[in-house]
Amino acid sequence: MAKKYEWEVKEALEEGGEKTHTVSLVCSMLTGKAVITIDGDEFDISVKPFSLRDTNQVFRLGEEAAVIDFPKKGDPTVTVGGEVIAPTFSFAK
After folding, report:
1. What is the pLDDT of residues 15-30, one digit of tens each?
2. Among 17, 24, 40, 85, which residue's Cβ finds the most Cβ atoms within 10 Å?
3. What pLDDT score was predicted for residue 62?
4. What are residue 9's DSSP bridge partners?
5. From CA 46, how far away is CA 54, in angstroms rounded?
6. Are 85 and 67 in contact (CB under 8 A)?
7. Up-side HSE of residue 4: CA atoms within 13 Å toward CB?
8. Minimal CA–CA distance to 9: which of 92, 83, 74, 90?
9. The model's pTM
10. Range list of β-strands (E), 1-85
């Protein structure tokens, strides 16, 4: 069964203020299917069946590097600037 996760990540802008980035993930740990959507742009990061756990993917979030981590146990997390961000919303799809 696929699960959907969502994150909202705030980025401080050089000229002042901040921008909120939206990251969502639909994945199945069983099949290895994973699609990440970053600010409306969709990317397929699927792997072989049963291979998603204990992996990570690096991506750009605004001007910063970010990592989505699939731990051996538990929900995926996003790390930006050394700060681990838990999903703001998750549900079975």
Report:
1. 889 999 999 999 999 9
2. 24
3. 87
4. 21
5. 14
6. no
7. 8
8. 83
9. 0.89
10. 3-12, 18-27, 34-38, 41-44, 55-61, 64-70, 77-80, 83-85
